[in-house]
Amino acid sequence: MTKDEYNEFCRGLRATSHVVQWGGADVWKVADKVFAIAGWNGTTETLGITFKVSPMDYASLADQPGIRPAPYLASRGMKWLQHYDAPGLPDDLLRSHIEESHRIVSLGLSKKKQRELGLNQDM
């Protein structure tokens, strides 16, 4: 996934905003809560994409080639992974995990805020 494809995909998710921070990373938020971070990994040409996952996905993906517990976030007990090198995840699966990260983070918002933003209404 290229940087443009990443940004285009995140832009298409409901109630998102984009900022560039933390050394030039493209950070996507839902109601000011981060759900995805992308920046260049200094050692490869692969775009490093960080996203929140369920405990089960964390356990099953954290040791896969090209995926690791997200620096800083995972060391604080948070269930975040970083797709940082090949082979990593195929783009369709990476998009699915970014979308799930958006959902997980949005579920942490108050019910009122979720309603205001039109999030999780089918649950």
Describe this structure in words.
- This protein has 123 residues and is of the alpha+beta class.
- The chain has one domain (3-113): Aspartate Aminotransferase, domain 1 (Alpha-Beta Complex), CATH 3.90.1150.30.
- The chain has four helices and six strands.
- It has helices at 3-11, 55-61, 91-107, 111-117, and strands spanning 16-21, 25-30, 33-40, 47-52, 67-69, 80-83.
- A six-stranded antiparallel beta sheet has the order 1-2-3-4-6-5, with helices on one face.
- The model has no long low-confidence stretch (mean pLDDT 91).
A few lines on this structure:
The protein is α+β, with helices and mostly antiparallel strands and 123 residues long. The chain contains 4 helices and 6 strands.
Key words describing this protein structure:
4 helices, 6-stranded antiparallel beta sheet, globular, alpha+beta, 123 residues, 33% helix, Aspartate Aminotransferase, domain 1
List the helices and strands and how they pair.
Blueprint: H1 3-11, E1 16-21, E2 25-30, E3 33-40, E4 47-52, H2 55-61, E5 67-69, E6 80-83, H3 91-107, H4 111-117
Antiparallel strand pairs: 1-2, 2-3, 3-4, 4-6, 5-6
Kindly estimate the percentage of residues that lie in beta strands according to DSSP.
25-35%
Could you state the order of secondary-structure elements as H and E? HEEEEHEEHH
Helix content: 25-40%
Tell me the CATH architecture.
Alpha-Beta Complex
Annotation, overall tally of beta strands: 6
Calculate Rg over CA atoms.
Answer: 14 Å
Which oligomeric state applies? single chain
Biggest sheet descriptor = 6 strands, antiparallel
Shape: globular
Low-confidence stretches: none
The helix tally amounts to 4
Name of the CATH first level: Alpha Beta
Structural class: alpha+beta
**Mean of residue pLDDT values:** 91
Q: Strands of the biggest beta sheet: in what spatial order?
A: 1-2-3-4-6-5
Query: CATH topology, what is it called?
Result: Aspartate Aminotransferase, domain 1
N- to C-terminal separation?
Answer: 30 Å
Number of domains: 1
